[in-house]
Design goal:
By secondary structure, this protein is mainly β. The chain has no helices and 11 strands. It is elongated, with a radius of gyration of 14 Å.
Length: 120
Amino acid sequence: QVQLVESGGGLVQAGGSLRLACAASGGTFSISSMAWFRQGPGKEREVVASIIWSSGMPSYSDSVKGRFTISKADAKNTVYLHMNTLKPEDTAVYYCQGAIQDGRMWSTYWGQGTPVTVSS
């Protein structure tokens, strides 16, 4: 069974930076894409960045474009979210999501979430 485990959240002042990591593990699998979502207080979950695993092509939501960078480490099956110039409105629980083939089936997997709090 594939598992996604996030790390790196925490408390940071506005203008600061954090790096989130999400590692996939659990047997033999293939990754098609991975993405970072977030859910702020009283808000719906939204995608902030995604990456195509084979090409490394990223995409970003308008709200984080130019401030966040998604990257990957193939050998570690890990995706990162580098967050710079953080704003209080970036406060949320951040989740990673993976489109992963485990055996014969493609499935969507989610991590447990890591909280990010940006103080003003």
